Amino acid sequence: MKNSLFTVFVFLALLAHARAQDNQAQAKQVSSQAPVAQSIVKGRAVYDDTGQPAPRERIQLVAPEVLTAHRGRIPTVLTDENGEFSFSGISAGEYYVVARPIDEHVGSAVAAPFPLQTGDPVRDAATASQYKKENIKITVDGANAIRIDLRVRNPHFGTASGRIVSDDGKPAVGAQVNLTPRTGSVETNVGSSALTDEEGSYRFRGLLAGEYTVSANPPSKMHNREQPRLGTEGSLGATYFPSTIDPSDSPAIIVYADRETSDINITLTPRKLHSVAGIVRMLGDGRPISGAMVRLFKKDDPVQTKSVAVTGAVLSNYITLTDAEGHWSIHNLPDGSYFVDITPNLNMAGRATNLKFVEKKREVSIAGSDLEDVLIEVSNGASISGTIIVEGNQPIFSVFLHALKQGGSFESSQTANLSLRPAEKVTTFVLTQVPEGEVQLAAMVQPNSFYIKSITADGVDLLLENLTIPEGAEIKDVRVVVSPEVAKLSGRVLSANGQTALAGVTIMLIRNGPDKRRISGGQLTGVTDSEGNFSVTPPPGDYRIDLRRISHDPLGVSRPLLEDAPQVILQPGEQKSMEIRVP
């Protein structure tokens, strides 16, 4: 009996040991299959022209698969004052190292860490190839540290700084400072805004050399500085440097490369400014609308100033978001009539309570006092559903559907939009938040080697007629047909004797005859090159060819070069060439 028990004990012990070894082997196997993410990637960035450290550079590691999928995790760090940077926990793989100044004032497409698709395969391939040439590629093993040294473009940015005080000399804490480029002075029209600190001070970095206009709004009287500001204010109630309410009386602020223009100090001029506050809720059940975008702007034309160069300094758009209870407020507004435009803002992270609704506009007037409890009710709207049919064998990049209700005034016009990337020849769609009433349904397609051949519903040609939509209706079985059969018209524009090629002439094809169907897709415009050559790819149809000189004078009005415009009829897929002579 003792021997039997001993035998069982030994067997169980051996079995437990074997299982332990097997578990360790499995753990090792799983561990070996898991991606290793322990590498440190560090380095230093210096300017290519001076060799000096490049501070405030955004360094990003972009994996090749992100270029293909246009999404994915992108490790990001900033360089310090010595140009040093360091990543930790980087997974094994290949990466392109992308560096851009964090202070650069550019649009989101330019600032993206990878090239965005345009829908033109040739153009996208060329952009991707150039991207790979411009950015170095590194290989990380996931375990060991590597060091890289970068030489980056020196943007030669300037800086502008100053202080904002009230008329009593006290710091204007939390005042919004507005900086706008003067027309024709700076190679960008992108302005910027900043909030003053506890001393009333502000600083703008990353500025291109040139002339700017600087203004400041009073601190928002209802703004809680403990909470982040939602949105931005226009400058209708601003004071311009050094202390004037007329932007034409404000001297230009000159920003120099690699220097700081300081002491741009503004003393706020006392003004009678007011606030507008309200709530957005759903019609019927009264649910508050959280995270809706509220845009307020002047009803009439922007404020006219004495100098064309500074008209862009007057910013009439005020933007904010509704809170969890649907409340919103906008401040620092002078007396006048305004439009309030309410649209869904469905891309906000953490706003799961966002509700979809139809865009709503309302006119409000300010006359000597604040407006409170402005109620704006929105509705779910109708829906339009159907299929998108792509003819031929070529893939398309995107289709954009647009439902527009054209009212008798801006206040009554409403829109609903939907963007899709059809992967198959037949793709279903549902366009929601469509306004009730008479609605024009349109579609646009990318690339421009396609065009919208037809949009129909129950035998109705929607490129010619509009839909009549009741509130809450479901319009079904709409067919959108996309065709690759664009025509191609090419040729040359020459002088009357045919001896001189005319470069820089704009070519525009305009629909002729009784056909009132809306045109969408293809390419209807072009510009002649140095040899007078042009090429356009319009949808098939009957056209007249409008020729005009490119004018760089914003006040100039270009006139047709030919009184009797050439005519052309193009069939689906047809290619034609013609020579046009201009006296």
Question: How would you describe what is shown here?
Answer:
By secondary structure, the chain is mainly beta. It folds into five domains: 1-33; 39-152, Immunoglobulin-like, CATH 2.60.40.10; 158-378, Immunoglobulin-like; 382-483, Immunoglobulin-like (Sandwich), CATH 2.60.40; 488-582, Immunoglobulin-like (Sandwich). It is built from four helices and 39 strands. The strands form ten sheets. Strands 9, 10, 12, 13 and 14 form a five-stranded antiparallel sheet that branches. The protein starts with a helix and ends with a strand.
Q: Please give the CATH architecture of the largest domain.
A: Sandwich
CATH secondary-structure class of the largest domain: Mainly Beta
Q: What is the number of independent domains? A: 5
* Strand composition percent: 35-45%
E-strand count: 39
Which spans have pLDDT < 50 for at least 5 consecutive residues?
A: 1-33, 301-311, 348-353
**Rg on CA atoms, Å:** 31 Å
Helix content: under 10%
N-end to C-end Cα span: 121 Å
- CATH superfamily membership of the largest domain: Immunoglobulins
Write the layout of secondary structure elements.
Layout: H1 2-33, E1 39-47, E2 57-62, H2 64-69, E3 76-78, E4 84-90, E5 93-101, H3 108-111, H4 121-134, E6 137-140, E7 146-152, E8 158-165, E9 176-181, E10 192-195, E11 201-207, E12 210-216, E13 239-240, E14 253-255, E15 260-261, E16 266-267, E17 274-282, E18 293-298, E19 318-321, E20 327-333, E21 336-343, E22 360-366, E23 371-378, E24 382-390, E25 398-405, E26 414-420, E27 426-434, E28 437-446, E29 451-457, E30 460-461, E31 467-469, E32 474-483, E33 488-495, E34 505-511, E35 525-527, E36 533-536, E37 541-549, E38 567-570, E39 575-582
